[in-house]
């Protein structure tokens, strides 16, 4: 069990894009510090890249260590740890399964693969006693998975809600602060390098859904895959939504939400979902702007926690990868291993329709007697309880505007999402409703929606 | 290396106050979940308390497990892990050294002991191969030490600045928001149970200084003890200071600051200090109110990170203790161990006088020609560069007030703290200076002090 047993830890890096370049750079520049922290030298023994000619720095610095044959590198006997920063499902899945099966530990930033096929990787790791670490897969540099997996291992996590996609948060922040349109904000994000040419993974919530799956799996000791996550993107968020949120003292954020949900009989299940939602401005998540990430965690004993930092970028992601690499290398030196997969709870995943949520509905209605009764009746018919109503404009209201038309803002209590969606659909058909300004879920997250005096 | 090798992990708990009670409660209530997470049952084999008759619940529930003889409990062969939540230096130091020397792992929340004699404990742990975990000693439930020690192990931490004492933050928040005096705010904190009968540890910064020592030790791989930490409490923060901070767009927080400091020749040293300082309102730490804690971390690759949550209280602290206990138990089951002490860097600790800081000075001055020149000359004589000056009142200024008197607000660039302190002392002696409203350090933390247009 002493550091003298192994003389060094030999590392293979797969992929050399933005993150991989930083990993290789830090690995060599900070070699002395890493050696001191690990208790043995950490030596780079190979880097696999598809097109070496695109990386002249790499080939000049490392020469023979650079290879195009990732499979051969992974298969080498003199590799102890495989660091994967290629991304995507194949050929990475095959490579990492091979590595784990042969007892090599894996450090990966690959959220898509973990969210699609994490259990297969975890089983391969457990079978051979290898380590599988993936801190960089969610929220970049923010230490989040280790706290969930280790620091809170003696607690019961009840809820994780976070901004885990920097691109969509940058766009929403720009729309909220500058009155910029979605299209203009997206263009700015693309020019700044935050958004890809095809922004779908970010703005349609696929990236956040992968992260939600990973977070839910760790938080609830239950296997949750990307396909279990209800996903709505933020392309449809309009200027009217932004304005409606402001009116309510809220900000719109694309949230990844994982929570324990309880039936009336106490049966427990898990909800994992991604959608744009209103968050009260007083909530710590509301002030997370630009490309930053932040994750709010609630646990029974620990209470409310928040983790904040850079969710993407070469250096921040490399920091997380290297933190994992040091942990895996220490385990290797000590002939031990890190915490294995913990999926003992195996809770069912609840469909979105049965998950309690809370809606905000902002309507244009006729300003005449009985309108509120008609609308309130529709909510009641669907079993949805109204938390607050505010009427503005019309004969009783603001000076400007059509006196025959009023604006009605409703915030509901929590109800099954399908009942809320059904209510909204029914209300739009009412004669007295002339238009819908905004329909969005409200994530009170335990705090007050002060503008309407609603307890969160 | 399989979970079958050891049949259970046997735990002794020393102390049964607020935290200990929660630890024992969670340990028994969540026994099944802990077993699943550890891979073996975690069994309470003894609880040492000085006065069992004060804990009827404990003796009724656990009967023979309760003992008054902590030393005998620690010495038992059938104890694998000792959890210490007594606090204070002796007899705890002797007990924990005995436990570690005999190979028993230790989980402790004892910041005072760690800050005074952490190296002795670390050496005892390393000598026998036992684990020493102490997440609960800093910032209660917030997973902070594990991220510093493990997640950022592949990065270089440059700065840690945080609100790590909830009592003083509660008092400062009350003073800032309600115009409450220090004395009234302290009384409210005492009534709410946040402050002790003798509040010195909190308001004089001793508690925060212990935490700063622990944070600096982990962040910079250098042994830093409480006596190395420069400490100023917050008893002297006045209503005038609060008002001056508001005028500058800042909030006053009692900060624990640990940072790498570089000489002109590149020589690196460490500064660890605790004092009340102005923080720009736009900074995430500024909005941390009440008894909450938050710690801002800057690292070379990861960039800026923040951790937020409850820093004290029975349940939150117990959450951190149990997280450590699960980690230690997992290590025990796997016959491995966690990261050992990392003090390889052994950087010198710099005295406060030589640490670069930035001052804010708010003066009442005569409103006549040459005043600014006299004051600016004093700064220059001490080698301190002025970042911004604002003059209000007087003949050129506000409508109300004495036209022969002006208010001068100065924010400096960074300079050695002794030069700044010397300048302030000299300025107070100038004829043209009629009074000092406020002198406080400004921790820009890399952000803009917007009110005066000073880059942070």
UniProtKB/TrEMBL annotation, chains A, B:
Q: Which InterPro entries match?
A: ACT-like_dom_sf (IPR045865), ACT_dom (IPR002912), Asp/hSer_DH_NAD-bd (IPR005106), HDH (IPR016204), HDH_cat (IPR001342), HDH_CS (IPR019811), NAD(P)-bd_dom_sf (IPR036291)
By its UniProt entry, which Pfam families does this protein fall under? Homoserine_dh (PF00742), NAD_binding_3 (PF03447)
Binding positions (L-homoserine): 196
Q: What is its EC number?
A: 1.1.1.3
Sequence positions that bind NADP(+): 14-21
**Membrane-crossing residues?**
none
Q: List the catalytic residues.
A: 211
Could you mention a single GO BP entry for this protein? threonine biosynthetic process
Class of the enzyme per the UniProt entry, highest EC level: oxidoreductase
What is the name listed in the Swiss-Prot or TrEMBL entry for this protein? Homoserine dehydrogenase
């Amino acid at each position: 069990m002493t550091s003298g047993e192994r003389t060094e830890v030999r590392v293979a890096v797969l992929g050399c894009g933005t993150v991989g370049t930083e990993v290789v750079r830090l690995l060599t520049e900070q070699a002395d510090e890493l050696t001191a922290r690990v208790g043995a030298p950490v030596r780079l023994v190979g880097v696999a890249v598809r097109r070496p000619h695109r990386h002249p720095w790499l080939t000049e610095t490392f020469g023979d260590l650079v290879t195009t044959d990732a499979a051969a590198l992974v298969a080498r006997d003199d590799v102890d740890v495989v660091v994967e920063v290629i991304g995507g499902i194949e050929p990475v899945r095959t490579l990492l399964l091979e590595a784990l099966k042969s007892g090599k530990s894996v450090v990966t930033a690959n959220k898509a693969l973990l969210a699609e096929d994490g259990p297969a990787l975890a089983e391969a790791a457990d079978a051979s006693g290898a380590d599988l670490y993936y801190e960089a897969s969610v929220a970049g540099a923010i230490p989040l998975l280790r706290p969930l997996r280790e620091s809170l291992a003696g607690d019961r996590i009840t809820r994780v809600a976070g901004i885990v996609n920097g691109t969509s948060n940058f766009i929403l922040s720009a729309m909220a602060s500058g009155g910029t349109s979605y299209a203009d904000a997206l263009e700015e994000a693309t020019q700044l390098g935050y958004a890809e040419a095809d922004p779908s993974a970010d703005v349609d919530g696929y990236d956040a859904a992968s992260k939600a799956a990973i977070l839910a799996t760790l938080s609830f000791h239950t296997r949750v895959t990307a396909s279990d996550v209800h996903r709505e993107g933020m392309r449809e968020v309009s200027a009217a939504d932004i304005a409606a949120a402001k009116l309510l003292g809220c900000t719109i954020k694309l949230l990844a939400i994982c929570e324990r949900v309880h039936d009336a009989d106490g049966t427990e299940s898990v909800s994992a979902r991604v959608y744009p939602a209103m968050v009260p401005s007083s909530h710590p998540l509301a002030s997370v702007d630009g490309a930053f990430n932040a994750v709010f965690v609630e646990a029974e004993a620990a209470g409310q926690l928040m983790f904040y930092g850079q969710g993407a970028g070469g250096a921040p992601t490399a920091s997380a990868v290297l933190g994992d690499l040091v942990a895996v290398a220490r385990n290797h030196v000590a002939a031990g291993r890190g915490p294995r997969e913990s999926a003992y709870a195996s809770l069912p995943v609840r469909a979105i329709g049965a998950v309690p949520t809370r809606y905000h509905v902002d309507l244009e209605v006729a300003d005449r007697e009985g309108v509120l009764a008609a609308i309130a009746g529709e909510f009641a018919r669907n079993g949805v309880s109204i938390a607050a109503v505010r009427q503005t404009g019309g004969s009783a209201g603001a000076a400007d505007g059509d006196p025959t038309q009023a604006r009605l803002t409703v915030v509901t209590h929590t109800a099954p999402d399908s009942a809320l969606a059904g209510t909204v659909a029914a209300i739009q058909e009412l004669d007295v409703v002339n238009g819908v300004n905004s329909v969005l879920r409200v994530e009170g997250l335990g705090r007050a929606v002060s503008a309407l005096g609603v307890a969160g």
